[in-house]
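hey
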């Protein structure tokens, strides 16, 4: 699995197209004036928090790999985590499985053995977002946040129950027998199920959940600073609730990177609260560029230069 020039060009095209439409729809002249008044000194702490969060998540990734018998260096774990972010714009983040390909090339471990780490991370991302939103609802109730949280929580509970009840192998066998797509994309062997069961054991599940909730709250600080950078006076809890509700909406849609739906949800939530559509659009564009798209850009650079074929030798 490699990051090709075509994927880079397509990603850039989609980003530019989406934000061009948003800018035109929300009155580009007003948004330009808003950006001209941006408090740029907020940008450094935002980027610092984003990179710190990624580094901490790479440490968690290394912890999960060690629990299934794979020991990699902190540096390499950080490299492959960054590189995989270039594939976050794939449906459901499925392209993140490129990490398993990197590990296979360098260490020889099968994709079936390591892919549960990626799936575990995605599972906990949704769980972390859901828990944080649920926490904010106690302070600021929102119908859309409540609904999104209930849906995501239901999905999380079903997946967790299947894994812990040992019925997942049976379900995967059934899906693989019924669908060529599942046969080609979903690992279905002893290594896969053993790794997955290990990662969902009580202790590892608890440690991972606590860590991810912490990382999510840390990212929330960067999100809040994004609001402040564009002079939008809003409380921390409201900012976090609005953003993660939008992120979860995009994630549950399985649209690559949540492109479009995340932005539309964010703008819709803020405008329903009485905020101007232009400032709402400016804020989500700024936050997405300084967080997700910033990391995607770094991921492309890392995968192209730091993880070249010679690094596997």
């Amino acid at each position: 699995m490699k990051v090709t020039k075509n994927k880079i060009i397509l990603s850039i095209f989609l980003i530019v197209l989406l934000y061009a439409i948003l800018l035109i729809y929300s009155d580009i002249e007003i948004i330009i004036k808003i950006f001209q008044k941006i408090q740029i000194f907020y940008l450094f702490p935002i980027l610092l928090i984003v990179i710190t969060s990624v580094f901490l998540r790479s440490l968690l990734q290394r912890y999960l790999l060690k629990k299934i018998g794979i020991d990699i260096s902190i540096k390499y774990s950080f490299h492959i985590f960054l590189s995989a972010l270039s594939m976050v714009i794939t449906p459901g983040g499925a392209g993140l499985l490129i990490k398993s390909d990197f590990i296979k090339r360098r260490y020889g471990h099968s994709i079936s053995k390591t892919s549960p780490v990626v799936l575990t991370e995605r599972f906990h991302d949704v769980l972390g977002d859901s828990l944080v939103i649920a926490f904010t609802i106690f302070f600021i109730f929102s119908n859309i946040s409540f609904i999104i949280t209930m849906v995501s929580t239901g999905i999380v509970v079903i997946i967790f129950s299947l894994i812990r009840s040992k019925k997942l192998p049976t379900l995967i066998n059934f899906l693989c027998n019924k669908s060529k797509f599942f046969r080609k994309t979903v690992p279905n062997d002893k290594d896969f199920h053993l790794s997955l069961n290990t990662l969902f054991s009580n202790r590892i599940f608890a440690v991972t959940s606590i860590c991810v909730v912490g990382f999510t709250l840390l990212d929330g600080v960067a999100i809040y600073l994004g609001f402040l950078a564009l002079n939008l006076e809003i409380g921390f809890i409201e900012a976090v609730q609005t953003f993660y509700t939008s992120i979860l909406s995009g994630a549950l849609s399985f649209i690559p990177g949540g492109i479009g739906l995340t932005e539309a949800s964010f703008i819709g939530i803020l405008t329903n609260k009485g905020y101007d559509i232009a400032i709402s659009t400016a804020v989500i564009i700024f936050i997405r560029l300084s967080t997700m798209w910033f990391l995607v850009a770094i991921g492309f650079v890392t995968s192209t230069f730091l993880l070249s074929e010679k690094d596997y030798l």
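The chain has a mean pLDDT of 85. The radius of gyration is 20 Å.
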